[in-house]
Amino acid sequence: MNREDFSILDQKVYGKALVYLDNAATTQKPNVVIDTLSKYYLEQNSNIHRGVHYLSSSATAEFENARRSVQTFINATSDCEIIFTRGTTESINLVSSSFGKTFIKEGDEIIISEMEHHSNIVPWQFVCNERDANLKVLKFNEKGEISVKEFTKMLTNKTKIVAITHISNSLGTINPIKDIIDIAHKHNVLVLIDGAQAVAHCKVDVQELDCDFYCFSGHKMYAPMGVGVLYGKKNILEEMHPYQGGGEMIKEVTFEKTTYNELPFKFEAGTPSVGDVLGLQRAIEYMRNIGLDNIAQHEHKLMEFTLAELRKIEGVRIIGEASQRAGVISFLIGDIHPYDLGVLLDRQGVAVRTGHHCTQPVMEHFGIPGTVRVSFAMYNTIDEIKIFINAVKKAKEMLS
Length: 400
Ligand code: PLP
Fold this sequence. Notes:
Number of helices: 13
Oligomer: single chain
Bound molecules: pyridoxal-5'-phosphate
CATH topology of the largest domain: Aspartate Aminotransferase, domain 2
Largest sheet: 7 strands, mixed
Order of helices and strands: EEEHHEHEHEHEHEHEEHEEHHEEHEEHEH
């Protein structure tokens, strides 16, 4: 892969070559994405949609063009189904709040899974508290897999929506979301997919999946921080109450009554982060040039090699052993605290994440304080994994 496109990776930390394995937290950005941001602020910066002048109309055209790129990237039916947000967290909050206000009433049920990121738990707790609805949790087994059969049993005529992650950010599990969606739909239940850990690692086709909502963050897919996407089916979005009030989301405002703008603008109150959206578009183009299948294959090799090498180290316990898994690996060694291991890896130039990864219920399930997590991106190499494995062995020796 084009590692040289990522200048940030070409540096030393503590005198050691940087090995960046914290990609589930955020990926690095290729230089072309940074150039796009820079070009925007040097040559194009202007507020969009409301201006008659040259800069404003050209920024508006580029912004709307970026929306169409996202539409093509995930194969949405229409560009009005693409709503720009600040990230996955905001996308989920938008749906839980607006869908909640419009459709959830007392006694209704919302299903999430035990492996959700906090941003796919807490917003649903808000709704349940506000509407007197019930949050039901689909448990996973010791391998970190959910059962479609168990899921089916949980559905009742009160279930309104299921919100589930495509790929777990702490276990690496790839969930059987197509089955979940098909079964939920047979019961007239809608499905939101948290795609934060998926869009940069496998092909996502929202029409093929037939999901009702799909949420993701730009910064986890080689794009700038501060931008994300909510995909929603047009007919459902049209019925939903707006999320935030303000400029752009209105058609007409009087003190007596306000009418709302059409999709997608109804859900995009205020000035969006135009430069970041253009950066997202450039990141998508960059990934498409390399090919999502090539990226997935490369990351799969890294994942298999890492798992095999980690398993050779005495005392290593992999947290999350799902048969369908992605390039996110959580592990522990004996009773070494993950934080101590993380600090010693850092001193050897290896960036990993330690802690609960915003999935405290997952840690509670296993009765552990946290894990050390490595996660891959297209630019990681087998040589880097070898450095990482040696660093783990060294750290283990020092801490045992
Ligand atoms: N969902 C999952 C599965 C994640 O991994 C993350 C971030 O780590 C989020 C949601 C939240 O993403 P963001 O902080 O970009 O909104």
